[in-house]
Structures are given as C-alpha cells and as structure tokens.
Amino acid sequence: MYKNIFVVAGVIIYNKKILCVQRGINKYKYISEKFEFPGGKIEKNETEENALRREILEELSMIIDVDKFFMAVNHQYPDFFLNMKVYLCSSKSNKLFLSEHLSYQWLNVNKIKNLDWAEADIPVVKKLLSNNIF
C-alpha cells in the first residue's frame, strides 16, 4: 500500500520569469537534487492557498500572491503517490532566502525545459510551455 501525499506547489512569477528551485539531498534518489516548483504539505484545517503561502514563506522567506489554480498532478513514485495542486502565483520581489533548497533560478518560460525536473513537475513544465501564461 502506497502512502498518499497531498501537496500544493506554486509557479511563482516575477517580471515574466518563473522561479525554479532545486531540492536538497533526499532519501529517495529519484527526487534528490531535482528541480521543482516550490510548495509543500497541507496542514489540517488549512486551505490550499494558505498552505502555499505558508510553505513559501517558511522555505524561501517570500511573500506571494496566489493568483489562480493552474492544474492538478497525480503521480506514482516508487515509494508514494503524490497528489499535487499547482497554482500560478506572483511576487512583488525576486528576493528570497534558501532554507531547504540547494539552488534557485529565475527563468524565462522557454528556458525551464532545460532543467532536471522531478517527475511530478514535468507535466507542469509541459503545460507552461504550451500555454501563453503572460
């Protein structure tokens, strides 16, 4: 029986660039050091939007606006099943502080395909590349 994990992630946009963050070393090699859209787990009695704002503040010291729902991703990893709700977000600044991630990049949408993404984030990358979000 696989564990179901429910998370939210944000496609954070500043000045027509998208924030891409690199995960730290993880016990699961298949997501270790991969790029992802930042976010995290939803706590009890928390809305998806509030969870996303809280996680981004905790992990990146950023204040964001959650603008609109973008897509849902359901992905089976070898050790767990991920249910991820993805939102388009904006920030009034590109300043951030990494507390959990190894690195970050602000990239034009056409450059995001060049990163080594976690598998669950690849459908988000593909939709961003096929939609004109700006």
Q: Could you walk me through the main structural features you see in this protein, from its secondary elements to its overall organization?
A:
Strands 1, 2, 3, 4, 5, 6 and 7 form a 7-stranded mixed sheet that branches. This protein is globular. It is built from 2 helices and 7 strands. With 134 residues, it is of the alpha+beta class. The model has no long low-confidence stretch (mean pLDDT 96).
Question: Secondary structure elements and their pairing?
Answer:
Blueprint: E1 3-14, E2 17-22, E3 35-36, E4 39-41, H1 48-60, E5 65-76, E6 80-90, E7 103-107, H2 122-130
Parallel strand pairs: 1-6
Antiparallel strand pairs: 1-2, 1-4, 2-3, 2-7, 5-6
Instruction: Tally the beta strands.
Output: 7
Cα(first) to Cα(last) distance is: 41 Å
Mean pLDDT: 96
Low-confidence stretches: none
Which band does the percent of strand residues land in? 35-45%
SS class? alpha+beta
Overall, the morphology is globular
Oligomeric form: single chain
Order of helices and strands: EEEEHEEEH
What's the Cα radius of gyration?
A: 14 Å
Enumerate how many helices there are, as a single number: 2
| Helicity range | 10-25%
**Main pleated sheet:** 7 strands, mixed
